[in-house]
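Minutes, project check-in
Item: structure for the 151-residue chain
Input as provided by the requester:
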Amino acid sequence: MSKKLTKAVKEKRQQILDFEATLLAIKDQDNVYLGDDHKHPLTHVFTEGLYLRELRLEAGTTIVGKIHKEDHIVFLLHGIVAVATDTGVQEYEGPCYIKSKAGVKRVAHAVTDIIWVNIHANPTNTQNLEELENNIIAKNYLEYEEFKKLK
């Protein structure tokens, strides 16, 4: 059964979406980037049944994450990061691990230089990044809710 969202959660979700839209509107390749780019390249590692994605960010960098379809584990290997979600802001200091809940969009601000590693299930062992993204990520909250109904 689907859990009802509180007014506060809905408002925080909208704030995150509005922040992301503002960033996209000013995207200029010097200060605002989309996804895997020359300044913040992703490292992709594959092993039997798992996909690992590493991101390194410089202090002062802010990113808006995607909505993951499944819970997964994140390792903050180094640094301090503040993460805003629809339930508030939490600061993490590495090394640590974080249980990343499905259906949550995050804004992460690197307080110091950070190394952030996501670990995802990859049951088909695909190394096609587009296919992985389709399996792992919902394009929006509506798509995520539809995915949950099919589970």
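Outcome recorded: The longest strand covers residues 50-57.
No further action items on this chain.
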